[in-house]
Amino acid sequence: MKKILKVFLGFIGVFGTLFLLIFILTIGDYPVPKTVSDDPTIPHIAIKEVVFHSETFGNPQNPVVVVVHGGPGWDYKSLLPLKALSDEFFVVFYDQRGSGLSPRVDQEMLTLESYIQDLNSIIDYYSIDKKVSLIGHSWGAMLVSAYIGKYPKKMSHAVLAEPGFLTTEMVKEAGISFGPKLDLDFLIFASKIWFQTLHIKSPDKHAASDYFLGQVAPQANPEYYCNGVVPEVGIEHWRASAVSMQNVMQLITNSNGNIDVDLIKGVDKFTDKILFLASECNMKIGVAHQKKQMKFFPNTELAVIKESGHMMFGEKPDESIRIIREYLNR
Length: 330
What we know:
- Helix 2 (about 110-125) packs across helix 3 (about 140-150) and helix 5 runs antiparallel to helix 6.
- Helices cover about 35% and strands about 15% of the residues.
- The protein has helices at about 1-25, 110-125, 140-150, 170-175, 185-195, 205-215, 240-250, 285-295, 310-315, 315-330; strands at about 45, 50-55, 65-70, 90-95, 130-135, 155-160, 275-280, 300-305.
- The chain is built from 10 helices and 8 strands.
- The longest helix has 24 residues, at about 1-25.
- It has an 8-stranded mixed β-sheet with strand order 1-2-4-3-5-6-7-8, with helices on both faces.
- By secondary structure, the chain is of the alpha/beta class.
């Protein structure tokens, strides 16, 4: 018994020493941007008592284009190349409720319906009497699909840039998994980031978890990118929102632990053409996956962004914007 206890205490000592060493080695400054709650100088709007980090570009008299970012829980920084459209359109960017630089909110305020109604509020705020165009990327494209089903008459155009999955069946088709990644290199990287979070105390109680998500998430899906390498451009972000990500995943996970979602209800009512964008390099939710999802809509076309991965607007901005501009001008 004493021998077992001695071995156990020795293990605890080694583990504790290693923990302390890594903790000391990761001491440093890991800045996390403030949200609008702590810095009201950040550009924002308030609609129905909900505050959104938001910016607009272009002439308000021009046709309105609303950009819907991915995640869940990300922000629109990586989509800012789309402001090049502002020479012809009035381009609206916003961080979704509780995401990016928008103020954090309680979990019960984060529902799929709240995200859809927030998008509807943004549209009414900027274009209550004219149809708008929507550009959604990844999770944002999934939201746009759900919005199309509810409000088909409020839109003139829709761009769906690599929506992850629009139905439960498409989750299975793509082989999408949301469990922990077991690759050793990734686990070492994630462990290092976790130690860094131990040194983050500000600007708010969500800062450490937001930092962890923002650093780790881009590295979690190398198959989304050319040669399995996460690009240096296109993945820029201000601040992720761990609470938003976690809450959405809980909302779409059934009691058996499986993803259960339907974001295509009513989309058959929108008969104008929808533009799907897919990147050439994305082996998970790229061309083949999007061709299957296009079948849910009555009128679609597909454009493939060559030599690009999932973050196409940052990786290949000129080509992506040229294709979108041509579509919006029809």
